[in-house]
Amino acid sequence: MTRKLRLGGNIDHVATVRNARGGARPDPLRAARAAAEGGADGITAHLREDRRHITDADIHGLTELLNGMGLPLNLEMAATAEMRAIALRHRPHAVCIVPERREERTTEGGLEVAREENRLAHFIAPLAEAGCRVSIFIAADRRQIEAAHRIGAAVVELHTGAYCDAHAEGRFAERDTELDRLRDMSAFAHSLGLEVHAGHGLTYDTVAPVAAFPEVVELNIGHYLIGEAIFVGLDASIREMRRLMDNARQ
Ligand code: PXP
Q: Which domains does the chain have, with CATH numbers?
């Protein structure tokens, strides 16, 4: 399979740096333009309930900017009434439902869908009706994938954090086990008709094996790219990630 793998550039931490001082700089919209220049296929931003990085005004600005550029916005958000109202007002291309509170998480850190099927099914239905592609951020776990499928999600984003942590901490046997799990569960989700994305904690060192999974069509990457951008610029850090992803896909 040689389907192109999309890169969603997550710019949350540009806003983290801005908010450390208040004011307007560095500007997440400028980051979105630089990410697009470097080869990002879309922009991802997480509007957290506590607004610790991206703000409501950023989402408004990103929506206008990206609509003008013809690039998709992937809005990450918790499953709350407030966030849904914001999403319905802006109608981003995609909405990714993520856990924010501890009790919403599985042990691997993804959303606990299996325990909350009814609530989540009702929560996402209006978003899908409004034309947003609804993605659910979950652990690479069969139960969670089946539940995401049952509630009518179009997409699952598999949490790569445990794989990346194991690599960073030199626990290579565990890393390989996590990678096997991600591979198997990508294939399983795809077999149910779900579109498969992946992300969290990915770096130049860890991206290639995940990018090589044929069922994965999008990676969402932020923190590492923004960190690298301090040294080489955001367009360059995105370009290098894009190159590694494309190489892994051949
Ligand atoms: N995907 C989802 C659903 C996320 O919540 C995040 C973090 O905001 C990412 C991807 C990107 O993770 P990172 O910033 O570690 O690359």
A: 6-248 (3.20.20.70)
Q: Does residue 96 contact residue 62 with C-beta atoms inside 8 Å?
A: no
Positions annotated as catalytic residues are 46, 76, 200
Over residues 71-96, the mean pLDDT reads 98
* Residue 3: band (very low, low, confident or very high) from pLDDT cuts 50, 70, 90: low
Task: Report the predicted TM-score, pTM, of the whole model to 2 decimal places.
Answer: 0.97
pLDDT digits over 192-228, tens only? Answer: 999 999 999 999 999 999 999 999 999 999 999 999 9
- Residues with CB under 6 Å of ligand 1 are 10, 12, 46, 76, 96, 98, 137, 157, 199-202, 220-224
Closest CA to 136 of 161, 105, 165: 105
Whose Cα sits closest to atom 12 in ligand 1?
Answer: 200
